[in-house]
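Section 5.1 Outputs to date
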Amino acid sequence: MLKIEVKTFKELSTQQLYDLLQLRSEVFVVEQDCVYQDIDRKDQKALHILGYKELELVAYTRVFQPGDYFKEASIGRVVVKENQRQHKYGYDIMKASIEAVKNHYNQSKIKISAQTYLKRFYNNLEFKEVGEEYLEDGIPHVAMLKS
């Protein structure tokens, strides 16, 4: 089971910020071989959901209130360290993120931009596809909504 922490940008320690940026880079830039601007000036507005196994950050998302990313509340940068995925931590971090949207923003409607190959994972969390597939940073994505 993950130990979950929910923090605003200002509440993050320098070490936590370093760790979350390192994890995002490790997966989204190196593993997925995708050159894109991860540091996008949106982290300052986000709530950061950090999932720790012992003292290591192994799962992470960032969450936005309605209007800060999409019209609806949203969850993005969903990431689990490659050598930890067999433990299903993706579900733990997403459930904590959905809970954070409810608790911090009093919202149940959530929009995400999901990598297409993860549709079933998000379907299992009650997200439904909306619209056509599109490319984001060269990777197929689909918009999904949870009501």
